Amino acid sequence: MNRQPVLEGERLLLRPLTPDDWDALFAVASDPEIWAIHPQHDRWQEPVFRRFFADALGRGGALVVIDKATDAVVGSSQYKEEAGGVVEIGWTFLATSHWGGRYNREMKRLMLEHAFRFVGRVEFRVGECNLRSQRAMEKIGGHLTDRFAMVDLPGGGTMPHVIFEITRDSFASGPLSL
After folding, report:
1. Do 65 and 14 meet the contact criterion of CB atoms below 8 Å apart?
2. Which of 1, 128, 154, 174 could lock 141 by a disulfide, CB 3.0 to 4.6 Å apart?
3. In this structure, is residue 178 part of a structural domain?
4. pLDDT class for 78, splitting at 50, 70, 90?
5. Of 42 and 37, which is predicted with more confidence?
6. For residue 98, is it within any domain?
7. Residue 54: predicted pLDDT
8. What is the pLDDT of residue 57?
9. Confidence of residue 127 (pLDDT cuts 50, 70, 90)
């Protein structure tokens, strides 16, 4: 699976993250409101975000999200390694100006459509206390499983996450299907 495709929708363009995206992406990420209830609530600070950014570049699979109407960088998301017919989508954030559903829905629809060309299931690891992201997962058709994961954080440490999933079949009949 190509984990760094170019994906284009009505409102958004997703393309591979490059080192040149630092300034524009950090300008978005430096808003503390984005991270207020996030498990890593200090990610708005430059040293913390630098580790996150370097990790995203190093692992591959990171996409930058561009608002086609303004050509502005408005966020990022990542595909994690594929294994056993499953890929993870996560580490997603959007500018607060793009909160409210329609941008996240389009971004996830584009990413899921791409992933389901190669795998049968997509997993999403969400911080166990991140209720905003858990609600967003439910809105796009994510099913909360009974599995948990301890996720390594850039810069050290681990954090418990719940696991949501969307299968190819549930996507085809779910809220993001066209």
Report:
1. yes
2. 174
3. no
4. very high
5. 42
6. yes
7. 96
8. 96
9. confident
Specify the number of domains making up the chain. 1
Q: In what order do the strands lie in the sheet with 7-8?
A: 7-8, 12-16, 62-67, 72-79, 86-94, 121-127, 158-167, 143-152
* β-pair partners for 174: none
Rounded CA gap, 80 and 51, in Å?
Answer: 17
Q: Which residue range is the domain that position 62 belongs to?
A: 7-172
Half-sphere exposure of 125 (CA within 13 A, CB side): 19
CA gap 108, 82 in Å, rounded: 17
Residue-wise pLDDT for 9-29, tens only, equals 999 999 999 999 999 999 999
Q: What whole-number distance in Å separates Cα of residue 171 and Cα of residue 113?
A: 9
Q: What is the pLDDT of residues 138-151, one digit of tens each?
A: 999 999 999 998 87
CATH number at residue 12: 3.40.630.30
φ, ψ for residue 143, nearest 5 deg: -105, 125
Q: Within a domain: residue 101?
A: yes
